[in-house]
Amino acid sequence: MMSRKFAAFVATGVALAVVVGSLLVLALGHQRQPEPTAATTQTSTSTTPSPTPTDTPTLNAPPSTPRKPAPDPTAAIATGNKKVLFFSFDDGPDPVWTPKVLQVLAKYGAHATFFELGAMQTAHPGLREQVLAAGNTIGSHSITHPQLTILSAAKRHHEIFDGPHSTCFRPPYGASNPKVRADIKAAGMVQVLWDVDPRDWARPGTNAIVHNIMTHTHNHNIILMHDGGGNRAQTVAALDKVLPQLKAQGYTFAAMDC
């Protein structure tokens, strides 16, 4: 009888020792689990393993070197207190109106930048050379003047990359967004908009165009006008009136660095 009780006592002791030993092993194993880091904490509902990153994330890494900003095509010219304005003409070259604009510019010793369409350059060969020979510069205005912000990526890329060769790009209608600006930069160009829009494209009358320019123009401004896209008789007449008035105020008229 005593031997049975003793055997039961021994068995119970052994069982307790096994349990205690197991608990100690689990406790020690838990203490050796690595701490999660901020670089690896993420929320995901997918059970598919994430792809291996090409770069190992580093905590508290120093900020990357900022990219050099795109050049300003007017900065080098508009230095100091020099009174200078930048006239620009869109939608050409046009066989009727571009030569007339060139004649007025030459009359007052003025230069300008012509944002040309690739389709117009193709349709009217030789005008590009006339613009450049007169001391002006040429920017790209795309190939066919679409609203770039609503195009597919492929069409947007074509209009920007395959348009007139330049380092300056003016998006049609001034319509731009991060994707357009990224394509312009990738094509080796800088986006150029304007400061003064006298609405000559709407043909509001020569005097209205003149009043708008003379009222809103300030030093170093870019002025938007058009040598293509329709009848530009009002534009030519307005240009012939504002240039001498602005010249009398001490302004000069330079082409942008495109």
Structural overview:
With 258 residues, the protein is an alpha/beta fold. The chain has helices at 2-31, 97-107, 118-123, 127-133, 153-161, 178-186, 206-216, 233-248; strands at residues 84-90, 112-116, 137-140, 168-169, 190-191, 222-226, 252-253. The strands form two sheets. Strands 1, 2, 3, 6 and 7 form a five-stranded parallel β-sheet that branches. The chain has a two-stranded parallel ribbon with strand order 4-5. Helix 2 packs parallel to helix 8.
Shape: globular
What fraction strand?
5-15%
Q: Say how many strands there are.
A: 7
Order of helices and strands: HEHEHHEHEHEHEHE
Task: Please describe the biggest sheet, giving its number of strands, its sense, and whether it closes into a barrel.
Answer: 5 strands, parallel
Our measurement of the CA-to-CA distance between the termini, rounded to an integer number of angstroms, reads 110 Å
Helix/strand-derived category reads alpha/beta
Helix proportion: 25-40%
Instruction: Tell me the number of helical segments per DSSP (H or I, 4 or more residues long).
Output: 8
Q: Could you report the average pLDDT, rounded to the nearest whole number?
A: 79
Residue runs with pLDDT of under 50 for 5 or more positions: 1-70
Cα radius of gyration in angstroms: 35 Å
